[in-house]
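User: Can you predict the 3D structure for this chain?
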Amino acid sequence: MCSPATKQAPPPSQCSYNVAPITSGFRIDMMTSSTPGNYIINITEKGQNEPTVQSFSGTSHEIKHLKPCTEYELSVAYRDNAGNETLCTSTESKMKTTGMNETDIKEGSCMHGYVCYQSDWDISSSLSTSNNIPAQPCKSSNTELCIKPDYNDICTDLTTTFTSGDCANTFSLTKSITVADFLDPNEIYQKPPTGLPAKIERELPEHCTDLTVVYTCKDELGDIKNESELEPFTHYNCTGHIKNNNVPINRTTDIEFMIDCDLTITTESNATMTSIDLTWTATSKRCPVLPGLPKLSYDCSCVPPSKHTPSADKSQTGGMCHFPGLDPFTMYKFKVQPKYNYEEVASPSPVTEVRTKAGKPEDIPHVEWSNPEHNVVRVSCTYGKRFNGPKKEYIARLYYNGDLQGEKPPVKHCKFEFKDLSYLTEYKVEVFAFNGEHYSNPKIITVTTSYNIKALIARLVVFIIASVALVVVVYKIYIPWHKKSRNDANDDMVLEQSKEDYVNVPQYEQHC
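Assistant: Here is the predicted structure, written as C-alpha coordinates:
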Protein backbone atom coordinates (compact mmCIF):
# COMPACT_ATOMS: atom_id res chain seq x y z
CA MET A 1 0.00 0.00 0.00
CA CYS A 2 1.49 3.32 -0.98
CA SER A 3 1.52 6.36 1.23
CA PRO A 4 0.00 9.49 -0.24
CA ALA A 5 2.58 11.93 -1.51
CA THR A 6 3.30 14.99 0.63
CA LYS A 7 1.79 18.06 -0.89
CA GLN A 8 4.48 20.67 -1.57
CA ALA A 9 4.00 24.37 -1.98
CA PRO A 10 4.49 25.46 -5.55
CA PRO A 11 7.44 27.74 -6.24
CA PRO A 12 6.57 31.44 -6.21
CA SER A 13 5.55 32.79 -9.51
CA GLN A 14 7.60 35.88 -8.67
CA CYS A 15 10.17 36.62 -5.90
CA SER A 16 11.50 40.14 -5.63
CA TYR A 17 12.24 42.64 -2.86
CA ASN A 18 13.30 46.20 -2.12
CA VAL A 19 16.00 47.35 0.39
CA ALA A 20 15.74 50.61 2.34
CA PRO A 21 18.25 51.99 4.90
CA ILE A 22 17.00 52.48 8.46
CA THR A 23 18.73 53.43 11.70
CA SER A 24 21.32 50.77 12.53
CA GLY A 25 20.65 48.70 9.35
CA PHE A 26 18.26 47.88 6.52
CA ARG A 27 14.61 46.97 5.97
CA ILE A 28 13.73 44.28 3.42
CA ASP A 29 10.28 44.60 1.80
CA MET A 30 9.03 41.74 -0.36
CA MET A 31 7.05 42.73 -3.39
CA THR A 32 3.29 42.12 -3.11
CA SER A 33 3.45 39.72 -5.98
CA SER A 34 5.82 37.47 -4.08
CA THR A 35 4.51 34.30 -2.62
CA PRO A 36 4.37 34.39 1.20
CA GLY A 37 6.74 31.88 2.80
CA ASN A 38 10.16 31.40 4.38
CA TYR A 39 12.99 33.60 3.20
CA ILE A 40 16.74 33.44 3.80
CA ILE A 41 18.89 36.61 3.87
CA ASN A 42 22.67 36.60 3.39
CA ILE A 43 24.46 39.81 4.43
CA THR A 44 28.17 40.24 3.79
CA GLU A 45 30.15 43.23 4.99
CA LYS A 46 32.41 44.77 2.42
CA GLY A 47 35.82 43.26 2.58
CA GLN A 48 34.60 40.20 4.48
CA ASN A 49 34.10 36.70 3.13
CA GLU A 50 31.76 35.16 5.66
CA PRO A 51 28.13 36.28 5.36
CA THR A 52 25.65 36.74 8.17
CA VAL A 53 22.55 34.61 7.63
CA GLN A 54 19.07 35.57 8.86
CA SER A 55 15.66 34.09 8.09
CA PHE A 56 12.16 35.49 8.20
CA SER A 57 8.65 34.73 7.03
CA GLY A 58 6.24 37.39 5.93
CA THR A 59 6.55 40.38 3.69
CA SER A 60 8.97 42.59 5.61
CA HIS A 61 12.11 42.23 7.78
CA GLU A 62 14.53 44.64 9.48
CA ILE A 63 18.23 43.88 9.66
CA LYS A 64 19.74 45.77 12.64
CA HIS A 65 22.98 46.08 14.57
CA LEU A 66 25.06 46.73 11.50
CA LYS A 67 28.02 49.04 11.38
CA PRO A 68 27.29 52.65 10.48
CA CYS A 69 28.25 54.07 7.09
CA THR A 70 29.40 50.65 5.91
CA GLU A 71 28.70 48.91 2.60
CA TYR A 72 27.03 45.49 2.66
CA GLU A 73 26.08 43.01 -0.06
CA LEU A 74 22.64 41.39 0.35
CA SER A 75 20.78 38.48 -1.21
CA VAL A 76 17.33 37.00 -0.46
CA ALA A 77 16.20 33.47 -1.33
CA TYR A 78 12.84 31.72 -1.06
CA ARG A 79 12.93 28.34 0.72
CA ASP A 80 10.11 25.89 0.11
CA ASN A 81 8.96 23.13 2.41
CA ALA A 82 11.38 20.67 0.87
CA GLY A 83 14.25 22.98 1.63
CA ASN A 84 14.80 24.06 -1.93
CA GLU A 85 15.89 27.65 -2.35
CA THR A 86 15.05 30.05 -5.17
CA LEU A 87 17.02 33.29 -5.42
CA CYS A 88 14.86 36.40 -5.37
CA THR A 89 15.57 39.48 -7.43
CA SER A 90 16.14 43.07 -6.39
CA THR A 91 17.13 46.29 -8.02
CA GLU A 92 20.00 46.73 -5.50
CA SER A 93 22.41 44.03 -4.37
CA LYS A 94 24.78 46.40 -2.55
CA MET A 95 23.68 48.95 0.01
CA LYS A 96 25.40 51.30 2.48
CA THR A 97 24.15 51.97 5.98
CA THR A 98 23.55 55.51 7.13
CA GLY A 99 25.85 57.48 9.38
CA MET A 100 25.65 57.48 13.19
CA ASN A 101 25.04 60.51 15.39
CA GLU A 102 25.34 61.24 19.09
CA THR A 103 21.70 60.50 19.80
CA ASP A 104 22.27 56.92 18.70
CA ILE A 105 24.57 56.33 21.73
CA LYS A 106 23.30 55.90 25.24
CA GLU A 107 25.24 55.27 28.46
CA GLY A 108 24.90 51.73 29.69
CA SER A 109 25.31 50.03 33.06
CA CYS A 110 26.17 46.50 32.13
CA MET A 111 29.37 46.09 34.20
CA HIS A 112 30.18 47.86 37.46
CA GLY A 113 33.42 49.77 37.35
CA TYR A 114 33.27 50.07 33.56
CA VAL A 115 32.22 52.84 31.22
CA CYS A 116 29.52 51.27 29.05
CA TYR A 117 27.79 52.52 25.91
CA GLN A 118 24.65 51.05 24.35
CA SER A 119 23.55 51.44 20.72
CA ASP A 120 21.50 49.63 18.14
CA TRP A 121 24.47 50.10 15.85
CA ASP A 122 27.38 47.70 15.85
CA ILE A 123 29.89 50.11 17.38
CA SER A 124 32.64 47.51 18.01
CA SER A 125 34.89 49.22 15.46
CA SER A 126 33.50 52.73 15.85
CA LEU A 127 34.89 53.85 19.21
CA SER A 128 38.32 54.64 20.61
CA THR A 129 39.21 55.88 24.10
CA SER A 130 41.69 58.38 25.46
CA ASN A 131 43.33 55.64 27.54
CA ASN A 132 43.69 53.39 24.47
CA ILE A 133 42.03 50.49 26.27
CA PRO A 134 39.88 48.37 23.93
CA ALA A 135 36.19 47.93 24.66
CA GLN A 136 34.73 44.62 25.82
CA PRO A 137 31.32 43.26 24.83
CA CYS A 138 28.78 43.14 27.58
CA LYS A 139 28.08 39.60 28.71
CA SER A 140 24.38 40.19 29.18
CA SER A 141 23.64 42.39 26.15
CA ASN A 142 24.94 42.29 22.59
CA THR A 143 24.14 45.96 22.05
CA GLU A 144 26.47 47.24 24.78
CA LEU A 145 30.23 47.74 24.90
CA CYS A 146 32.19 48.49 28.04
CA ILE A 147 35.57 50.07 28.70
CA LYS A 148 37.59 49.43 31.84
CA PRO A 149 39.23 52.66 33.00
CA ASP A 150 42.85 52.36 34.00
CA TYR A 151 43.63 52.56 37.72
CA ASN A 152 45.20 55.97 37.23
CA ASP A 153 42.23 57.15 35.15
CA ILE A 154 40.27 57.48 38.38
CA CYS A 155 39.71 61.11 39.31
CA THR A 156 40.00 62.07 35.63
CA ASP A 157 37.65 62.19 32.62
CA LEU A 158 37.57 59.36 30.09
CA THR A 159 36.82 60.54 26.56
CA THR A 160 35.46 58.10 24.00
CA THR A 161 35.46 59.07 20.31
CA PHE A 162 32.94 57.54 17.92
CA THR A 163 33.38 57.28 14.15
CA SER A 164 30.87 56.23 11.46
CA GLY A 165 32.67 53.90 9.16
CA ASP A 166 33.46 55.56 5.86
CA CYS A 167 31.70 58.77 6.90
CA ALA A 168 33.75 61.73 8.08
CA ASN A 169 31.51 62.76 10.94
CA THR A 170 32.79 61.96 14.46
CA PHE A 171 31.69 62.88 17.95
CA SER A 172 32.99 62.30 21.47
CA LEU A 173 31.43 61.46 24.80
CA THR A 174 33.16 62.15 28.14
CA LYS A 175 32.67 60.25 31.38
CA SER A 176 33.93 61.41 34.76
CA ILE A 177 35.75 58.52 36.43
CA THR A 178 34.84 59.05 40.06
CA VAL A 179 36.25 57.30 43.12
CA ALA A 180 32.85 56.17 44.28
CA ASP A 181 31.94 54.51 41.00
CA PHE A 182 35.24 53.18 39.76
CA LEU A 183 37.68 52.54 42.63
CA ASP A 184 37.87 48.82 43.28
CA PRO A 185 39.45 48.23 46.75
CA ASN A 186 40.85 44.95 45.49
CA GLU A 187 42.95 46.86 43.00
CA ILE A 188 44.67 49.03 45.60
CA TYR A 189 48.27 47.88 45.82
CA GLN A 190 49.19 47.21 49.43
CA LYS A 191 52.64 46.14 50.56
CA PRO A 192 53.12 45.11 54.19
CA PRO A 193 55.86 46.86 56.13
CA THR A 194 59.18 45.06 56.52
CA GLY A 195 60.75 47.35 59.08
CA LEU A 196 60.27 50.07 61.62
CA PRO A 197 58.84 52.65 61.79
CA ALA A 198 56.03 50.61 60.28
CA LYS A 199 54.43 51.91 57.10
CA ILE A 200 52.00 49.97 54.94
CA GLU A 201 52.80 51.01 51.40
CA ARG A 202 49.76 51.73 49.24
CA GLU A 203 49.43 53.08 45.76
CA LEU A 204 46.36 55.23 45.21
CA PRO A 205 45.30 56.67 41.85
CA GLU A 206 47.81 59.40 41.14
CA HIS A 207 45.19 62.03 40.35
CA CYS A 208 43.11 61.46 43.48
CA THR A 209 44.72 64.06 45.73
CA ASP A 210 41.94 63.93 48.32
CA LEU A 211 41.99 60.15 48.63
CA THR A 212 43.53 58.61 51.78
CA VAL A 213 43.69 55.21 53.47
CA VAL A 214 43.85 54.97 57.27
CA TYR A 215 44.75 51.55 58.70
CA THR A 216 43.68 49.93 61.91
CA CYS A 217 45.44 46.71 62.90
CA LYS A 218 44.52 43.93 65.28
CA ASP A 219 47.08 41.64 66.91
CA GLU A 220 46.57 38.04 68.00
CA LEU A 221 45.22 39.16 71.37
CA GLY A 222 42.64 41.39 69.70
CA ASP A 223 44.30 44.66 70.67
CA ILE A 224 43.72 47.46 68.18
CA LYS A 225 46.68 49.58 67.09
CA ASN A 226 47.23 52.33 64.62
CA GLU A 227 49.82 52.03 61.91
CA SER A 228 52.34 54.12 63.86
CA GLU A 229 51.99 51.88 66.93
CA LEU A 230 52.91 48.59 65.29
CA GLU A 231 55.57 46.48 66.99
CA PRO A 232 58.04 43.98 65.55
CA PHE A 233 57.72 40.20 65.85
CA THR A 234 53.93 40.52 66.18
CA HIS A 235 51.31 39.11 63.81
CA TYR A 236 48.81 41.71 62.61
CA ASN A 237 45.65 41.78 60.51
CA CYS A 238 45.13 45.28 59.13
CA THR A 239 42.21 46.90 57.33
CA GLY A 240 42.46 50.19 55.46
CA HIS A 241 39.60 52.66 55.67
CA ILE A 242 39.36 54.56 52.38
CA LYS A 243 38.39 58.17 52.73
CA ASN A 244 37.69 60.84 50.13
CA ASN A 245 37.88 64.34 51.56
CA ASN A 246 37.96 62.63 54.98
CA VAL A 247 34.63 60.97 54.27
CA PRO A 248 34.71 57.16 54.58
CA ILE A 249 33.71 55.53 51.33
CA ASN A 250 35.02 51.97 51.44
CA ARG A 251 37.51 49.51 52.95
CA THR A 252 40.54 47.81 51.54
CA THR A 253 41.01 44.10 51.57
CA ASP A 254 42.67 42.84 54.76
CA ILE A 255 46.43 42.49 54.82
CA GLU A 256 48.31 40.19 57.21
CA PHE A 257 51.97 40.47 58.13
CA MET A 258 54.61 40.37 60.84
CA ILE A 259 57.60 42.69 60.93
CA ASP A 260 60.73 40.60 61.34
CA CYS A 261 63.64 42.81 62.32
CA ASP A 262 66.82 41.48 60.73
CA LEU A 263 68.88 41.40 63.91
CA THR A 264 72.60 40.93 63.38
CA ILE A 265 74.44 40.02 66.59
CA THR A 266 78.22 40.25 66.84
CA THR A 267 80.04 38.97 69.92
CA GLU A 268 83.37 39.43 71.66
CA SER A 269 84.78 37.57 74.65
CA ASN A 270 87.32 37.93 77.41
CA ALA A 271 88.40 34.85 79.35
CA THR A 272 90.16 34.19 82.65
CA MET A 273 90.91 30.84 84.26
CA THR A 274 87.43 30.52 85.78
CA SER A 275 85.21 33.07 84.03
CA ILE A 276 84.28 34.46 80.62
CA ASP A 277 82.78 37.83 79.80
CA LEU A 278 80.67 37.76 76.63
CA THR A 279 79.78 41.10 75.09
CA TRP A 280 77.54 41.56 72.07
CA THR A 281 76.19 44.25 69.81
CA ALA A 282 72.84 44.05 67.99
CA THR A 283 72.09 45.99 64.82
CA SER A 284 69.24 45.93 62.31
CA LYS A 285 68.91 47.48 58.87
CA ARG A 286 65.14 47.06 58.83
CA CYS A 287 64.60 48.29 62.37
CA PRO A 288 67.09 51.06 63.13
CA VAL A 289 64.95 52.10 66.10
CA LEU A 290 66.23 49.33 68.41
CA PRO A 291 66.76 51.66 71.39
CA GLY A 292 63.06 52.48 71.23
CA LEU A 293 61.92 48.87 71.71
CA PRO A 294 61.61 48.32 75.48
CA LYS A 295 60.17 44.83 74.99
CA LEU A 296 63.30 43.67 73.17
CA SER A 297 65.65 41.66 75.40
CA TYR A 298 68.33 39.00 75.13
CA ASP A 299 69.29 35.76 76.84
CA CYS A 300 72.88 34.58 76.77
CA SER A 301 73.61 30.91 77.39
CA CYS A 302 76.68 28.76 77.98
CA VAL A 303 77.31 25.09 77.19
CA PRO A 304 78.35 23.35 79.36
CA PRO A 305 76.50 25.53 81.83
CA SER A 306 78.21 27.71 84.39
CA LYS A 307 78.37 26.41 87.96
CA HIS A 308 77.15 29.78 89.19
CA THR A 309 74.36 32.03 88.02
CA PRO A 310 75.65 34.39 85.32
CA SER A 311 75.13 38.10 85.67
CA ALA A 312 74.12 40.35 82.81
CA ASP A 313 74.04 43.98 81.79
CA LYS A 314 71.73 44.31 78.79
CA SER A 315 70.20 46.93 76.54
CA GLN A 316 68.23 46.86 73.29
CA THR A 317 71.43 47.34 71.28
CA GLY A 318 73.72 44.94 73.14
CA GLY A 319 75.08 43.98 76.51
CA MET A 320 77.49 41.84 78.51
CA CYS A 321 77.11 38.55 80.35
CA HIS A 322 79.56 37.43 83.02
CA PHE A 323 79.86 33.65 83.44
CA PRO A 324 81.68 32.73 86.68
CA GLY A 325 82.46 29.31 88.10
CA LEU A 326 83.92 27.85 84.91
CA ASP A 327 86.57 25.17 84.69
CA PRO A 328 90.05 26.23 83.60
CA PHE A 329 91.23 25.38 80.09
CA THR A 330 87.78 24.26 78.96
CA MET A 331 86.02 25.07 75.70
CA TYR A 332 82.62 26.68 76.17
CA LYS A 333 79.99 27.52 73.59
CA PHE A 334 78.00 30.72 73.89
CA LYS A 335 75.06 32.19 72.03
CA VAL A 336 72.78 35.18 72.42
CA GLN A 337 69.06 34.66 71.84
CA PRO A 338 66.88 37.74 71.14
CA LYS A 339 63.50 37.88 72.82
CA TYR A 340 60.54 40.14 72.31
CA ASN A 341 57.92 40.33 75.01
CA TYR A 342 59.63 37.31 76.63
CA GLU A 343 59.23 35.14 73.54
CA GLU A 344 62.17 33.96 71.45
CA VAL A 345 62.31 35.80 68.16
CA ALA A 346 64.67 35.91 65.20
CA SER A 347 67.71 33.70 64.97
CA PRO A 348 70.27 33.53 67.76
CA SER A 349 73.77 34.79 67.29
CA PRO A 350 76.32 32.45 65.73
CA VAL A 351 77.78 30.11 68.35
CA THR A 352 80.92 31.56 69.90
CA GLU A 353 83.51 29.09 71.16
CA VAL A 354 85.79 30.39 73.91
CA ARG A 355 88.36 28.49 75.98
CA THR A 356 89.16 29.56 79.52
CA LYS A 357 92.80 30.15 80.33
CA ALA A 358 95.01 27.43 81.78
CA GLY A 359 94.76 27.11 85.55
CA LYS A 360 96.42 25.23 88.33
CA PRO A 361 96.24 21.44 88.02
CA GLU A 362 94.34 19.64 90.72
CA ASP A 363 96.41 18.13 93.53
CA ILE A 364 97.86 14.64 93.29
CA PRO A 365 95.88 12.63 95.84
CA HIS A 366 98.34 9.79 96.55
CA VAL A 367 101.96 8.87 95.87
CA GLU A 368 103.58 5.48 96.45
CA TRP A 369 107.29 4.72 96.90
CA SER A 370 109.56 1.71 97.22
CA ASN A 371 113.23 0.71 97.51
CA PRO A 372 114.16 -1.46 94.55
CA GLU A 373 117.70 -1.19 95.87
CA HIS A 374 119.13 -0.07 99.22
CA ASN A 375 120.20 3.36 98.00
CA VAL A 376 117.45 3.79 95.36
CA VAL A 377 113.97 5.27 95.80
CA ARG A 378 111.22 4.70 93.23
CA VAL A 379 108.15 6.99 93.27
CA SER A 380 104.86 6.61 91.33
CA CYS A 381 101.33 7.98 91.37
CA THR A 382 97.96 7.45 89.72
CA TYR A 383 96.32 10.73 88.67
CA GLY A 384 92.72 10.99 87.53
CA LYS A 385 92.27 14.67 88.14
CA ARG A 386 92.13 17.68 85.81
CA PHE A 387 95.35 19.13 84.48
CA ASN A 388 93.55 22.36 83.47
CA GLY A 389 96.10 23.11 80.77
CA PRO A 390 97.52 22.09 77.41
CA LYS A 391 100.03 19.51 78.71
CA LYS A 392 99.77 16.50 81.01
CA GLU A 393 103.12 15.98 82.67
CA TYR A 394 104.65 15.22 86.08
CA ILE A 395 107.70 16.57 87.91
CA ALA A 396 109.45 15.22 91.03
CA ARG A 397 112.02 16.84 93.35
CA LEU A 398 114.23 15.26 96.06
CA TYR A 399 115.24 17.10 99.25
CA TYR A 400 117.57 16.26 102.14
CA ASN A 401 117.41 18.43 105.23
CA GLY A 402 115.55 21.04 103.18
CA ASP A 403 118.15 21.21 100.44
CA LEU A 404 117.25 20.28 96.88
CA GLN A 405 119.15 17.19 95.86
CA GLY A 406 117.70 16.70 92.39
CA GLU A 407 114.75 17.33 90.07
CA LYS A 408 113.35 15.02 87.45
CA PRO A 409 112.33 16.71 84.17
CA PRO A 410 108.66 16.63 83.07
CA VAL A 411 107.46 13.18 82.01
CA LYS A 412 104.12 11.94 80.72
CA HIS A 413 103.88 9.07 83.20
CA CYS A 414 104.09 9.57 86.95
CA LYS A 415 107.08 7.32 87.58
CA PHE A 416 110.43 8.51 88.97
CA GLU A 417 113.56 6.88 90.31
CA PHE A 418 116.33 8.49 92.43
CA LYS A 419 119.60 6.53 92.51
CA ASP A 420 122.93 6.62 94.31
CA LEU A 421 121.42 7.88 97.53
CA SER A 422 122.97 7.58 100.97
CA TYR A 423 122.19 4.44 102.92
CA LEU A 424 119.81 4.50 105.79
CA THR A 425 118.91 8.15 105.09
CA GLU A 426 115.60 10.01 105.22
CA TYR A 427 114.61 12.19 102.27
CA LYS A 428 111.62 14.32 101.24
CA VAL A 429 110.07 13.90 97.78
CA GLU A 430 107.71 16.43 96.14
CA VAL A 431 105.58 15.33 93.17
CA PHE A 432 103.76 17.92 90.96
CA ALA A 433 101.27 17.74 88.11
CA PHE A 434 102.37 20.17 85.39
CA ASN A 435 100.23 21.45 82.45
CA GLY A 436 102.87 23.44 80.62
CA GLU A 437 101.98 26.67 82.40
CA HIS A 438 101.11 25.88 86.00
CA TYR A 439 102.13 23.41 88.72
CA SER A 440 99.78 21.73 91.10
CA ASN A 441 100.35 21.89 94.82
CA PRO A 442 103.13 19.41 95.68
CA LYS A 443 102.34 16.04 97.13
CA ILE A 444 105.08 15.59 99.76
CA ILE A 445 106.15 12.19 101.08
CA THR A 446 109.00 10.99 103.27
CA VAL A 447 111.20 8.19 101.93
CA THR A 448 114.22 6.39 103.45
CA THR A 449 117.01 4.28 102.11
CA SER A 450 118.01 1.02 103.87
CA TYR A 451 121.21 -0.80 104.99
CA ASN A 452 123.54 -2.29 102.44
CA ILE A 453 123.07 -5.91 103.57
CA LYS A 454 125.71 -7.30 101.29
CA ALA A 455 128.32 -4.84 102.48
CA LEU A 456 127.20 -5.40 106.07
CA ILE A 457 127.53 -9.17 105.70
CA ALA A 458 130.93 -8.81 104.10
CA ARG A 459 132.03 -6.50 106.89
CA LEU A 460 130.58 -8.88 109.44
CA VAL A 461 132.49 -11.78 107.91
CA VAL A 462 135.65 -9.73 107.95
CA PHE A 463 134.88 -8.73 111.52
CA ILE A 464 134.26 -12.31 112.56
CA ILE A 465 137.41 -13.49 110.86
CA ALA A 466 139.34 -10.69 112.44
CA SER A 467 137.73 -11.41 115.75
CA VAL A 468 138.61 -15.12 115.51
CA ALA A 469 142.13 -14.24 114.54
CA LEU A 470 142.34 -11.83 117.43
CA VAL A 471 141.02 -14.49 119.79
CA VAL A 472 143.57 -16.91 118.52
CA VAL A 473 146.35 -14.37 118.98
CA VAL A 474 145.12 -13.44 122.41
CA TYR A 475 144.82 -17.07 123.29
CA LYS A 476 148.29 -17.78 122.15
CA ILE A 477 149.53 -14.87 124.16
CA TYR A 478 147.39 -15.56 127.15
CA ILE A 479 148.14 -19.27 127.70
CA PRO A 480 151.93 -19.00 128.15
CA TRP A 481 151.49 -15.95 130.26
CA HIS A 482 148.85 -17.71 132.25
CA LYS A 483 151.06 -20.68 132.83
CA LYS A 484 153.93 -18.52 133.91
CA SER A 485 151.61 -16.59 136.12
CA ARG A 486 150.46 -19.76 137.72
CA ASN A 487 154.02 -20.96 138.31
CA ASP A 488 154.98 -17.64 139.77
CA ALA A 489 151.94 -17.81 141.91
CA ASN A 490 152.85 -21.25 143.14
CA ASP A 491 156.31 -20.06 143.96
CA ASP A 492 154.92 -17.18 145.87
CA MET A 493 152.66 -19.45 147.71
CA VAL A 494 155.52 -21.69 148.70
CA LEU A 495 157.49 -18.72 149.85
CA GLU A 496 154.56 -17.41 151.82
CA GLN A 497 154.03 -20.78 153.34
CA SER A 498 157.63 -20.96 154.30
CA LYS A 499 157.31 -17.59 155.92
CA GLU A 500 154.29 -18.71 157.79
CA ASP A 501 156.02 -21.84 158.91
CA TYR A 502 158.97 -19.86 160.11
CA VAL A 503 156.83 -17.55 162.07
CA ASN A 504 154.94 -20.34 163.61
CA VAL A 505 158.16 -22.02 164.88
CA PRO A 506 158.43 -21.53 168.61
CA GLN A 507 161.01 -18.89 169.60
CA TYR A 508 163.22 -18.89 172.49
CA GLU A 509 163.62 -15.86 174.72
CA GLN A 510 166.97 -14.38 174.97
CA HIS A 511 167.87 -12.83 178.09
CA CYS A 512 170.43 -10.35 178.61
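The CA atoms of residues 292 and 316 lie 8 Å apart. Residues 453-504 form the longest helix (52 residues).
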